[in-house]
Amino acid sequence: MMMIRAVVMNRFLMHTPLPSSEVVVVVVGRRASHWVDRSSRCQQLVTLKDQHRLFCSSKGMLDGDEDKRGSSAAASQPQVMKKVEKKPLSFIERVKVFGANALLGAFTHKGGFDSQFRDLKVESIGKGVVTATLPVHKYVCNAYNTLHGGAAATLVDIVGTMALLTLDPSRPGVSLEINTTYVRAAKLNETVTITGRVLKSGGKIGFTQVDITRSSDGELVATGRHTKALA
After folding, report:
1. pLDDT tens for residues 111-149?
2. CA-to-CA dists, residue 225 to 13, 17, 40, 208, 210, angstroms
């Protein structure tokens, strides 16, 4: 009988003296094999995909039946389906698709800087008016553990834009000017209420005002104006 021996090689093929009746199976990286039949001095390169074990006979190797068996074995293996993850929508994209009522509830964003306001929640909307709340957590605080001035300005931007979207969900606009006046602090773990109102919305420009107050006593924390060019 013809003998079969398997030799694993990592980088290159190496021939060793063998009896004339011996067949060498060389596996390189588990993806290719080199069959050497010393009796007939012939060589055949067979590529094996997605297989980690070789089951063969000397007849199958020389006749080419191994390729057929390898194909059927690979076909019988369970297919791994890739999970398609849905990309998150920003609040602007959601409103364009679902209308102004999509603003209600948790603030939706696509990551990045907006993720710092992930705890923002829209409580109510009306024609040209939006009311939201935000817990003052560490990631929106300054070194004094109070609401950061930059966070307050961003709330003017976000909630002012939401107020404009209640009038026309297709025109969020782009910022032309934003200003914020700071009145008093909102401390860590307090909650603030943000109310945005449209002062005027024309064909090309929209004007909003946003007030930030402490939810506990209604005291004004900051107030801002936001001017946007409407596309």
Report:
1. 888 899 999 999 999 999 999 999 999 999 999 999 999
2. 74, 87, 89, 6, 6
CB 196 within 8 A of CB 210: yes
CA distance 178 to 131: 19
Residue 156 · residue 195 · CB < 8 Å: no
- Report the range of poorest mean pLDDT among 43-47, 146-150, 156-160: 43-47
Tokens read off for 203: 């064909």
> What pLDDT score was predicted for residue 167?
95
SS3 98: helix
DSSP 112: G
From the list 181, 155, 171, 154, the residue with the least C-alpha distance to 206 is 171
Strand ranges of the sheet holding 22-28, from the earlier edge strand across to the other edge: 3-9, 22-28, 32-37, 42-47
CA 94/CA 104 separation, integer angstroms: 11
- And the tokens for 52? 């980690």
Provide the whole-model pTM: 0.63
